[in-house]
Specification:
Length: 76
């Protein structure tokens, strides 16, 4: 089984659909992706070990992502 440390991140895209081309930006995005993936996996495993319902855990994590707020919306 692949670990999150070697999981292939997505191709990061700008709002217009073009791929992000800055190597430093891609590095930060990929690092954040891997860190979040590992943290989510750890939280998921903890909840399963504490006998929580797997479907509920997935739903809660999904809702957490959906609730994220963009503090830069509307800025140009």
């Amino acid at each position: 089984m692949a670990t999150h440390a070697d999981a292939k991140p997505p191709v990061w895209r700008l709002a217009d659909g073009a791929p992000v081309s800055c190597v430093e930006k891609i590095k930060v995005l990929n690092d954040n992706y891997r860190e979040l993936a590992q943290l989510a996996q750890d939280a998921f495993e903890d909840a399963v070990l504490m006998e929580c319902d797997e479907a509920q855990i997935r739903q809660v994590l999904h809702e957490l992502v959906e609730s994220l707020h963009n503090p830069y919306a509307g800025r140009t």
